[in-house]
Write a structure and sequence with these properties.
235 residues; transmembrane; 8 helices; two-stranded antiparallel ribbon; mainly alpha; 6% strand; membrane; two-stranded antiparallel sheet
């Protein structure tokens, strides 16, 4: 009887270990695109993390054929018809927004209900995060944001007032297109009661987009001047 107890005790402990490590096994030893199956919460259950890492069952293994065709068409239009200085501005703008997004993640907390709280230097803040999908989508779309929008809306104050609509249109177009390509949106994840259009826009972000519009209004003339001066030597 004593021998039986000594044999069964180690078996129980080794059986429990894999169960405790199941989440880390999914995220570390799986293929490169494998991610956690569920987001994690803090010990209080009030704040949630890693929502952007969740890959839903709808995810595609490859782009649809039409997706490849549309990507080539859009890139062809961007490459062949956009002036070189506008190309440079779109790349700079996409890179700048990647920095903004990474910073925004690192100074904010997300509640389980989907609310975002700005709390710089708080230990509960999320890890900084951005994606290549977001960057390349912005490179292709920002010519509409930076070049066409100011032409359509002449008064500077009206451009700022309508800037949330400008950003939401970007998010709707990019979000649905990325969902068509990937089966879900890998670039950003919105949650909460104020989310619309398949989770692609979040209404409570309007104050941030007003602020971004004001910054763009101030900086764009200088960016335009320097980009034209720089690219004039490349022609």
């Amino acid at each position: 009887m004593a021998t039986t107890k000594k044999r069964t005790a180690p078996q129980a402990s080794t059986a429990a270990a894999p169960a405790d490590l199941s989440l880390s096994t999914v995220s570390s030893s799986s293929p490169s695109r494998a991610r956690p199956q569920v987001p994690r919460t803090d010990p209080t259950g009030q704040y949630i993390y890693d929502t952007h890492l969740i890959v839903p069952p709808t995810a595609r293994k490859d782009f649809p054929v039409l997706g490849h065709i549309l990507l080539l068409l859009i890139f062809g239009l961007w490459y062949n018809y956009l002036p070189i200085d506008a190309k440079l501005r779109s790349i700079v703008a996409a890179a700048a927004f990647s920095v903004i997004e990474f910073t925004f993640y690192s100074v904010s907390i997300e509640t389980v209900a989907g609310d975002i709280l700005i709390r710089p230097f708080d230990s509960r803040c999320r890890k900084g995060h951005t994606t290549w999908e977001q960057f390349f989508a912005n490179v292709l779309y920002t010519p509409l944001l930076l070049e066409v929008y100011p032409v359509l809306i002449a008064p500077w104050w009206l451009r700022i007032a309508l800037y949330p609509l400008n950003i939401w249109l970007l998010e709707i177009v990019e979000g649905y297109f990325l969902t068509f390509l990937y089966g879900y949106n890998p670039a950003w994840t919105y949650r909460g009661r104020d989310v619309m259009f398949g989770g692609n826009i979040k209404l409570s972000y309007a104050p941030f987009w007003f602020g971004l519009g004001a910054v763009v209004e101030v900086l764009l003339p200088y960016v335009g001047e320097y980009s034209r001066a720089l690219t004039s030597e490349w022609k």
